[in-house]
Design brief:
The chain is an alpha/beta fold and about 290 residues long. It has helices spanning about 15-30, 45, 55-80, 95-100, 125-130, 160-175, 200-225, 240-245, 270-275, and strands at about 5-10, 35-40, 85-90, 105-110, 135-140, 150-155, 180-185, 230-235, 250-255, 280-285. Strand 6, helix 6 and strand 7 (about 180-185) form a beta-alpha-beta unit.
Length: about 290
């Protein structure tokens, strides 16, 4: 399968919803869908019960395989034109999904798992995959997706450019409005021992932040003339502003880290917080 949409399935309601979201995304992209269940057998590591009293591993494996096969059949029935494949593999969920993301155009996970039969504890796994995956990662909450716009966070840095491009493309595919949010605060500095101005002209600051937002969108507007864009210049912290604008959205898109982050961080505080708190699917896009 060439550059499929990859989705993790552990049997939980959140992962089943992620599968449905991923199937739609694969259809929009004209890509195959690869559903992956990672099986981990933890019983012997955490019990002192005699082996004769432990669950039958072969029986549990068969049950998990049937769960995966059932979901594959359901998606094929719902999307007859979609190329769907189900893979059952042994391993540590986060490690396997990060490795497999290298060959995927997009990796999709549920926000939280229920433990399931596979040990795919989404939450920690979703965070690890969003942090270390090779390409874009979408984390889907266990709620009905909204019918609103695509929302993207814009901070004016080079790191946000791939996120903006991803958001424009998604809005074009889905034929919905794109809301571009640029949150700003009063002048300050993230550079150690740097001087911060005691006095400044607020009108000039606002004009500069408006310029940053407009220039960040300009090239993408030309590339995607079919996308209606609503720029939002917000005075405040990024997380609450993005959460507010993304209520009821189809998708919230952010970069893996912003301009204020430390260079060594793979996942910034803003994207990490949104992964846990957003009520719509969140896409984390890195360079």
């Amino acid at each position: 399968m060439t550059d499929p949409v990859l989705v993790g399935l552990d049997g939980s309601a959140a992962s089943r919803r992620a599968v449905r979201w991923a199937a739609q995304a694969a259809g929009l992209r004209h890509r195959p869908l690869r559903m992956m269940t990672v099986f981990r057998w933890p019983v012997e590591s955490y019990t002192v019960a005699p082996r004769a009293e432990m669950p039958d591993e072969a029986g549990v494996r068969d049950q998990v395989r049937e769960m995966l096969d059932g979901e594959v059949r359901a998606i094929r029935a719902a999307h007859p034109d979609l190329d769907v494949r189900g893979d059952f593999v042994d391993g540590t969920p986060a490690k396997v999904l990060v490795e497999q993301s290298a060959g995927a155009t997009l990796t999709v996970l549920g926000q939280r798992g229920e433990g399931g039969l596979t040990g795919l504890l989404l939450g920690s796994v979703a965070t690890q995959v969003a942090t270390h995956a090779s390409g874009p990662v979408v984390v889907v909450p266990d709620e009905e997706p909204g019918i609103g716009p695509v929302v993207v966070g814009v901070d004016g840095s080079e790191l946000s450019e791939p996120a903006i491009g991803f958001a424009f493309e998604e809005a074009s595919w889905r034929r919905v409005e794109l809301v571009a949010v640029h949150a700003w605060a009063a002048p300050g500095s993230h550079i150690e021992h740097d001087r911060i101005p005691r006095f400044y002209n607020l009108d000039e600051v606002i004009a500069e932040e408006r310029r940053v937002l407009a220039e960040s969108l300009a090239g993408w507007r030309v590339k995607y003339p079919d996308v209606s864009v609503r720029p939002v210049l917000a005075h405040g912290a990024p997380v609450p502003e993005l959460l507010s604008e993304s209520a009821g959205a189809r998708l919230l898109v952010v970069g893996s880290r912003g301009r204020g982050g430390f260079a060594g961080l793979l996942l910034g505080s803003t994207s990490r917080s949104l992964l846990h708190r957003a009520t719509c699917p969140v896409a984390v896009v890195r360079r």
